[in-house]
């Protein structure tokens, strides 16, 4: 929310805060909610880009269309395991899923460093440590 809108609401007597604060969620509970919403959004985006209907995805998952709709809506009755399995079924890669589970992970992995703080690179092609699973050199 932008600052002007927040100030206007507070001046009118409204309290402005986060959903986690309103619901009294712990940091871990808030993280799970954010993760679920991020995965649900990714699921819908990948499904639509793949040209798949909810019915087709439901058949591939051996589930129902209404369950797929719940996945896209971020319904808490859908397990994270089913949501991740559905993402893989519609064609999402692990690399696309991982930043939604742990934001910042991908950027950290791209800049791996050894104990002395030197950037680590691949031994085969001299690119970043994530290019392939070969021995790592330090530079």
Low-confidence stretches: 105-112, 132-139
End-to-end span in angstroms? 43 Å
Strand order of the largest sheet: 1-2
The number of domains: 2
- SSE run: HHHHHHHHEE
Structural class: mainly alpha
Would you identify the CATH H-level superfamily of the largest domain?
A: lambda repressor-like DNA-binding domains
Topology of this structure?
Elements: H1 3-11, H2 19-23, H3 27-49, H4 54-61, H5 65-73, H6 80-89, H7 94-101, H8 105-110, E1 120-122, E2 136-138
Helix pairs in contact: 3-6, 4-5
How does this model look, in words?
The structure is a single chain. Helix content is 56%, strand content 4%. By secondary structure, the chain is mostly helical. The chain folds into two domains: 25-103, lambda repressor-like DNA-binding domains (434 Repressor (Amino-terminal Domain)), CATH 1.10.260.40; 109-139, no CATH class. Strands 1-2 form a two-stranded antiparallel ribbon. The protein starts with a helix and ends with a strand.
Features:
single chain; 139 residues; mainly alpha; 434 Repressor (Amino-terminal Domain); 2 domains; two-stranded antiparallel sheet; 8 helices; elongated
